[in-house]
Amino acid sequence: MAFPGAAQPFQAGEGGLQCWMVGAIVGVLVLVLVILLAYQRYLVGKKPVQHLCDYCGHMVNVVSDCHHAPVRERFLHGICTECRRECRLMCAKCKRPV
Ligand SMILES: [Zn+2]
Ligand SMILES: [Zn+2]
Fold first, then answer.
1. Residues 40 and 8 in one domain
2. Counting ligands in written order, which one lies closest to the CA of residue 82?
3. Which ligand is located closest to the Cα atom of residue 64?
4. How far is the CA of 63 from the centre of ligand 1 (A)?
5. Separation of 61 CA from ligand 1 center, angstroms?
6. What is the distance between the alpha carbons of residues 89 and 96, in angstroms, rounded to a whole number?
7. Nearest ligand, measured from the Cα of 70
8. For all residues of the chain together, what is the average pLDDT?
9. Residues 30, 69 within the same domain
10. How many angstroms is it from 63 CA to the middle of ligand 2?
């Protein structure tokens, strides 16, 4: 009588502990991922991003191809800070696409 009664809470407790651990691990992984993404965004927002220009052969700042204005960079393209439209990235020195 007492044994099954004692075993059941133990099993439930063990299962609950496993669930809790899986949840904690997933939570930690998600947290790490979010922090990494936030840190990456912070870095991209902070430092002036430079690109290797094929023509100059140097790391150069980029400008937009429409206004030759500074570019706020997005994934695979940029936003011209002058007209706020999508633009291609261009070498600030020789004005060629990078
Ligand atoms: Zn160049
Ligand atoms: Zn523009």
1. yes
2. 2
3. 2
4. 11
5. 9
6. 9
7. 2
8. 84
9. no
10. 9
Structural domain including 38 reads 1-47
Same domain, 62 and 95: yes
- Identify whether the C-beta of residue 26 lies closer than 8 Å to the C-beta of residue 35: no
What is the domain count for the chain?
Answer: 2
Instruction: Tabulate helix, strand, coil % of the chain (nearest 5).
Output: 45, 25, 30
> From ligand 2's centre to the CA of 36, what distance in Å?
31
- Distances 1 to 11, 13, 28, 58 between C-alpha atoms, Å: 16, 19, 41, 81
What residues have their beta carbon closer than 5 A to ion ligand 2? Answer: 64, 66-67, 80, 82-83
Q: Rounded to two decimals, what is the model's pTM?
A: 0.48
Q: Are residues 41 and 53 in the same domain?
A: no
- Whether residues 56 and 83 share a domain: the answer is yes
Whether residue 63 is found in the same domain as residue 96: yes
pLDDT in tens, 43-63: 766 666 788 999 999 999 999
Question: Are both 94 and 69 inside the same structural domain?
Answer: yes
